[in-house]
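Sat 14:20. Reprocessing the chain from the morning session after the first attempt stalled halfway. Input below, unchanged.
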Amino acid sequence: MFTSNNLTDQLIQRRREWVFLLVAGIFLGSLTMLNILGVSRFIDLSSYIGISDTSDIRFVVAVGVLPYPITFLCTDIISEIYGRKRANMVVWTGLFLNLWVLLVLWFGGWLEAPANLGADGRLPLELNNGIASAPHGYAFYEIRTLTFGATFASMIAYITAQFVDVHVYHLLKKRTEGKMLWLRNNVSTITSQLIDSVAVILITHYYAHALPIPEGAVISTALMSFILSSYLFKFFFALVDTIPIYIVVKYLRGYLKVEDELSF
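Finished this time. Tokens:
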């Protein structure tokens, strides 16, 4: 026969598992989305930060970067509430998810592959009355080609950056004896995202050749611009999420009855 304490314990345990699944689901969903969208589009945000249209310096980020800050917020929440082992488990799951995305894209392109599919994995545009038009399946093969390159770059950068994030987070948590959540949240994210930004841009350019670099542009300057744009975007949101993570962690510790209250 169940006692009130048994029912309470079961309820709390169910809450903990549901919250974990929710945060891990947001992490994995964002990761999948950023890898599929990847470098399919680049967004010029220069005008939003006061850079003139005539300036040679541009602030351009890939559309896949947009959901990326959420992934670090999720791993920090999991690290704080569920510990390092669970955070690393989610990171490994994300790596296998990358491989699954590649497998599905490869298989979907392999089945009934068009006879005119190019060696680069792309479909050529068709000419109808002298006007170029996209054949059936063109969008899929374009996304497939770009995703292969972006996901390969992302896997290497991701596994390195996420493990650095978890390691630095718990190192600082241990050094500060569980205090100063803002410090470990920001330092771990800022450090790991620098590694991620450099790795993704360099691999995407030298392996996938998928960066929109204008003809005649200085390669080193263009790459540095992409790296800084990506990193500053992530850096900004790493600072912005400090207050939300304090609020979320404080609420979850009470809601999930997690011991060792944080010292703010």
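The mean pLDDT is 80.
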